[in-house]
Design brief:
Length: 333
């Protein structure tokens, strides 16, 4: 058996590929990107790792056995397809271009998915993502909707049901709004699919405003509605402590339990930056028959990411940059 890769080499392999795809994407509308931080680089590596596992395991013979005709990728908050991940302008591919390039065992001519669906509400982001996506796939395999995810998700669910696709969906909450529990449940209720959900742990600040005695009642009411919309009213109602305060860790714990009711094989992963844990990633699958390939791979990912923090990400990034132009370089005469 080959020796397991070190955390450094594992990260370098995945991140190097993501930066290379990002280099291609930034040639199109280089002034338009999503701006995040180094912890986003680690989250993108987690997405890439699992997309590769998913496409490798879910082959055509298995799809036929479970009554599906193909695989679909769904990005509920698709963004621009390009993420600025450091202060010097270093960019990485977003989740949609990553999904289009996750070839396994060197089968570059074999499309990872039969169809790609994405939703982006910002006009200029949608336009940039459309042009970037068509670098990697053909128009007949791409459905990018310029709209509100909470409003248009039914179009996508209806289409994957009609075409009998098995799906992998990414719901990457930049903030606690834009995709309600009501619609998350619709995705979960269609059993032929896996979901990766990420929630920024600074959402705890939102809970803090509800507990604070100095928060205006109108603000408390607005923030409580946001929490009820995303996590469900049942989760929120059951997340108050003995003192009558909303417990942020209990909210996350109860949300995990709620997802687990719909997908018994659900794994929670915490992603770290140099300042501690910053993201909660929930991976939820319904095993497609005989074996635990998916869950075993995700638990391996869980162990790996628990040892990696922002300092290691920065170290790998410094090695990989190798002169990668910053976004501002593209505008120099």
């Amino acid at each position: 058996m080959p020796k397991p890769k070190s955390d450094y080499d594992w990260l370098k392999g995945h991140l190097g590929s993501i930066l290379e795809i990002g280099d291609i994407c930034k040639k199109i509308k280089p002034d338009i990107s999503n701006e995040y931080g180094s912890q986003t680089a680690l989250k993108l590596c987690a997405f890439k790792y699992y997309i590769e596992v998913y496409t490798m395991i879910l082959k055509n013979d298995l799809l036929r056995r479970i009554g599906c005709n193909g695989k679909a990728f769904i990005d509920v908050f698709a963004g621009t397809g390009l993420s600025k991940i450091s202060d010097d302008g270093t960019v990485a591919a977003g989740s949609m271009p990553i999904a289009m390039n996750c070839h396994w065992k060197g089968k570059e001519k074999e499309e990872p998915f039969d169809h790609y669906y994405g939703i982006e509400i910002e006009d200029k982001y949608h336009e940039a993502l459309s042009e970037r996506s068509l670098t990697f796939t053909t128009p007949n395999k791409l459905t990018l909707i310029n709209g509100d995810s909470d409003v248009v998700i039914d179009q996508i669910i209806d289409d994957i049901k009609r075409k009998k696709y098995h799906y992998l969906a990414i719901v990457d909450y930049g903030s606690l709004e834009g995709f309600s529990w009501r619609n998350m449940k619709k995705l979960l209720d269609y059993n032929h699919g896996d979901i990766m959900i990420t929630i920024l742990l600074n959402a705890k600040r939102l809970v803090g405003t509800i507990n604070s005695p100095i928060t205006e009642p109108s603000v408390k009411e607005k923030n409580l509605k946001r929490l009820n919309d995303i996590f469900s009213s049942d989760v929120i109602q059951n997340s108050y402590d003995a003192n009558g305060e909303l417990d942020p860790e209990m909210v996350l714990k109860n949300y995990y339990k709620l997802i687990k009711k719909h997908r018994s094989n659900t794994v929670e992963i915490r992603i770290k930056s140099d300042k501690g844990y910053t993201n909660m990633l929930l991976y939820a699958t319904k095993e497609t028959g005989g074996g635990t390939g998916y869950i075993g791979a995700v638990k391996d990912l869980q162990k790996r990411l628990d040892k990696i923090d922002g300092n290691l990400v920065e170290s790998v990034l410094n090695e990989l940059k190798r002169g990668q132009k910053s976004l501002t370089d593209w505008f120099k005469p």
